[in-house]
Design a protein that fits this description.
mainly alpha; two-stranded antiparallel ribbon; 5 helices
Amino acid sequence: MGTAAIMTFEQHATAPAPSALCARIEALIAGTEALATLLAREREALLGNDVAALETLTRDKHAHAVEIERLSRDIEQQRVAAGLDGLHALLAASGVEPQAGRRLAELAAHCLAANRDNAALLAARQQQIRSALQLLRPGALTAYGRGGAQSLSFGSRSFGAA
């Protein structure tokens, strides 16, 4: 056995395994693409008031987020073990195509923006529901003043007794 084929323990601990890292990066990209698709479907369900679809999508979105987090943690541990600064350094040291890192960053930014947009839609819908419920409650009137909505209460004063 030649000396070039033998790695010391220290070299083995710091050298990222290219095939394992490539597989994790590919799985992370695929999971993030699937999450982006789920977020688009969630937006459609929010706009269409499809509660049943939202329940299913929320469950699926959570499962994908957990898997993405697990893969990210594995990759980060590999980066720390290799003593490298940043994901791009790990990808370069492992021979992973630089486009993979860029694609992952683009997908993550897209998912973040889509999730924020969906949260804004949900918040607006919740406010609409609260406003509708407020109208149904007896004695809970509001008026708009300088500071926004304020409650109007009419004092109870007895004008006579029977």
